[in-house]
Every structure is written in structure tokens, then in C-alpha cells.
Amino acid sequence: MVLNRDGFETAVAESAEDALVFMKSRRPDLILMDVQLPGMDGLTFASSLRSIPEAAGVPVVALTSHAMRGDRERAIAAGCVGYLSKPIDTRTLSDELRALIKPSQPASVSA
């Protein structure tokens, strides 16, 4: 994975529900999540994070392969700080994500 190559520590959750459980035991520096998740969709997941104290301040970036008009606005309204459309430019992805992580935080990403 390009993020590992660029020095990020990553963790993968297979579903939004799994990610919510993960968030209760570990606090990632950033969440990169697909909007189209099995079960709970990514935007509902992003909204759900607001009720988890451990998730406070964790930037969430929405990722989609089916970009439609208004998606970016819906992602921001759900609590996301960024929105990326597939295909992703792997040459700039790491720099884009680093810009969203607070400087005092080490670089690790939950995907």
C-alpha cells in the first residue's frame, strides 16, 4: 500500500461497525474511509464518530468511486474534513493526508 511505503502506519476495518469498535480502543491520527461501506455507509459512520469521545478531533476523509454532485458537501456536513474521488493520485495522496494531520501527531492512518 502506498501509505505504508510513505511511512504511515495503517489499520483496516472491513466495515463501519468494525471501525467504531476499533475507535473505542485505539485513536488513529486520521481516518480514510470509503463512502460505500457494507452495512452502515461512510457518511453515517462519520456522523456516528461525533458520539465517541475517543474520536474527538480525528480528521475523517471520505473516499468514493462514484462521485456525484453534492457528495463533497454531504461529506463535509457529516463531519469529514476532506473528500477524495477515485482514482486517487498516489503521487500526492500522502502529502494531502499529512496536511490534514496536526503537526504534533505521529503519522498513522486508519483505513
Question: How is the topology of this model organized?
Answer:
Layout: H1 2-5, E1 9-11, H2 16-23, E2 31-34, H3 42-48, E3 60-64, H4 71-78, E4 82-85, H5 93-100, E5 108-110
Parallel strand pairs: 1-5, 2-3, 3-4
The CATH architecture category equals 3-Layer(aba) Sandwich
Q: What is the helix content?
A: 25-40%
Coarse shape = globular
Question: Can you identify the CATH class?
Answer: Alpha Beta
Biggest sheet, spatial arrangement of strands: 2-3-4
Compute the number of helices.
5
Low-confidence segments: none
Describe this structure in words.
This protein has 111 residues and is of the alpha/beta class. The chain has one domain (2-110): Response regulator (Rossmann fold), CATH 3.40.50.2300. It has five helices and five strands. The protein has helices spanning 2-5, 16-23, 42-48, 71-78, 93-100, and strands spanning 9-11, 31-34, 60-64, 82-85, 108-110. It has a three-stranded parallel β-sheet with strand order 2-3-4, covered by helices on one side. A two-stranded parallel ribbon has the order 1-5. Strand 3 (60-64), helix 4 and strand 4 form a beta-alpha-beta unit. The mean pLDDT is 86.
